[in-house]
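Data availability (excerpt). All sequences and predicted token strings are deposited with the supplementary files. A representative entry, Monoacylglycerol lipase, is shown inline so that the format can be inspected without opening the archive.
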Amino acid sequence: MEECSVGRHESKKIISLYETTEKNLLIGMNFFQMKFFSLFKGPFVFITRFAMSWINSYNLEDDTFAGSEGTKIFYRTYQPKEGRKENRVLVVQHGIGEHSGRYEFLVEAFAGTGTVFYLIDSRGHGRSEGKRGAVDSFSDYLSDLDKLIEIAREKEKVSKVTLLGHSMGAAISTFYAEEGTNQGNLNALIISALPIKVKLDLLMKLKKGIAPLMADIFPNLTLPTGLNVNHLSHDKTVVDAYVKDPLVHGMASTYLGNMLLNSEEPILTNAGKIKIPIYIFHGKEDQIADSAGSEVFFEVVGSSDKTLKIYEGLYHETMNERIEDRTKVLTDLKKWFESHAN
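Structure token line:
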């Protein structure tokens, strides 16, 4: 089986030193200070990147664009130094509370495939502007994503890209594909841990029940999501890194929470409109987003080229699971992508 995680553990001590230093510096910074810091991090970045041998095959660039209402949206690109292949452009949309920097494992796994990556920090996340975990309208996410896809198509001189979304990012990506003529911008759609069904314990039932009312009365009120970080992955190093990451937050506005908790009906209603190739995958033991949601979605998707992978025993972040598990997940994903990105 192909190994997708070379270099991850060899540089662990150096990366830990860098992350600790970065965390101390980033805490309390505003967007512009973080942007300045990202340009002048000094020798720690050089040492860390050198230790991560796979990164040497890419040119890394950070940039921003003006999203709706002028909000500065951060994005990151990885350009292969050699072997760039036409039409292999992958746009990645992250989940709630996280950011583009948590997806280096994906870039690492695809090293050598000639793929260009464009990764967004959604508004209110990572290095983008906006109140943490809040959005005025869910359509703002779609508008920002559309702008990044437009940038990617223009810069890479391609008519279409492949779009990958995880968790909340899967919902954003699905809504995007279901809307208007957006599918004309996409070669294919990749959906990880679609959150249209959640594990309904008593507390979650209560949250889902009152979410519409709270969203109407206090739409911009942000509250802790209550995410159990131990349900992200069985790999404790992944969980620890998530907890220590200064750009990760655990907040969501009542409006956003309501949109996600009640996204099942609108997504399933319009799933038949999706005609492009689609790859859906989910961990069977996901305690955050029920894999049953992906199974139902798969059944009603209109594409004649659709694939569903349910991974037994895996949690929410299947691509970030224990090394033997994530190797399987990423190898399956890479094979499908390579067969559909030309």
